[in-house]
């Protein structure tokens, strides 16, 4: 018989020999396992979409206001320019380090740490009543604000190659939608008393929310992983018992 025919399945003799209730139990266990694996990535991707949206939404509320705020602190245009370029310089040198670190600890944990430290940076920005605090805030954000890049690498790791471009396209589109809405909300908040500090605080709160959501999803993922291995072990046990009956 040619390969790929009806009788080419190497498990056919075993399935024919096993009593129907046991075979059904094995099939049900494996079916439950694969259903769990299908649901988990979908929930994970939805969470990453939300992370990308909130990330760009929060950042874009603050970014248009930075230059005006640093000048309002009474520094010269030269100092304002130097402090303004601090973020880009730190991003340039920290991107390689964060990428290497994510290889060591894993993308999810690296992303969680980046979100948390970015939240700290924006919280410091919300109390930056002098240029020194402003520089500290931009230092934190410059070093750790690689959330978008790490998210895309994480998507590349978990999505099959044939679907990767489509999923990353969705991620970029949703993130950019947040980048469109952010300046509108930030501009409105700036008109309020202490508007810049309020906007920066809301941005920090958004990053904290991002961290909490992602952390809860990681905990769910660990429970799901443990549940999958329980099902696998049960299926193996059933198969071993059935094989021993014929030995």
TrEMBL record:
GO terms for cellular component: membrane. Its main location: membrane. The lineage of its organism: Eukaryota, Metazoa, Chordata, Craniata, Vertebrata. Residues 44-247 form the Major facilitator superfamily (MFS) profile domain. Pfam families: MFS_1. The keyword rRNA processing does not apply. InterPro entries: MFS (IPR011701), MFS_dom (IPR020846), MFS_trans_sf (IPR036259), Tet-R_TetA/multi-R_MdtG-like (IPR001958). PANTHER family: MAJOR FACILITATOR SUPERFAMILY DOMAIN-CONTAINING PROTEIN 10, MAJOR FACILITATOR SUPERFAMILY DOMAIN-CONTAINING PROTEIN 9. One of its GO terms (molecular function) is transmembrane transporter activity. It is found in: Membrane. This is Major facilitator superfamily domain-containing protein 9. It comes from Crotalus adamanteus. The keyword Transmembrane applies. The chain crosses the membrane at residues 43-66, 78-99, 119-144, 165-189, 195-218.
